[in-house]
Amino acid sequence: MIAIAVVIALSGSIRPFTHIYAGINDYPLWWIPVSLLLSLVVHDTYFYWMHRLLHHKRLFKITHVVHHQSTNPSPWAAYSFHFIEAFLEGAVVIVLVFVLPVHAVTLMLFALTSFVINVYGHLGYEIMPEGFRRSVLFEVLNTSTYHNLHHSKFKGNYGLYFRIWDRWMGTENPEYVKEYDKIQQRRFGR
Asked: Which helix (H) or strand (E) holds 45?
């Protein structure tokens, strides 16, 4: 749905009202990766709160339950959503183009990045290298293990890219680090 929302945002109907810029040099070239990073931060914030809302009893039963039929997710579960949830997920692009100056390249990179990270989060298998656990990135980024816990426990670990909102809001699964270490122990034998 994000890719469809990007196509809609780039179409002539709403584009004139957005902050999408056409000339690659309208902003400094460094703005493309910076705006991509900011888009991911906005998306993660949007996703965290939307995801928590979809876990409300009434909404869960009519929307998010479709996604949670995969208790041990696979890449196919990454985009297994109820139509309402897919629409809400794609709507983040509309938010982005109205709040951030973005080039079409940024929007396409955003769609690709969100796709890759969403598939990784639903692998059902951890692929992070051995040294990742000792890096500062481990403290910030989600892993496949992180999201697998969300699918198996049905609550907590609501973030998409980052652990920040879950930590701030006290919704990070307290077993995450132990589970991650256990999985990496099996993989690497240390």
From this structure: helix 31-54
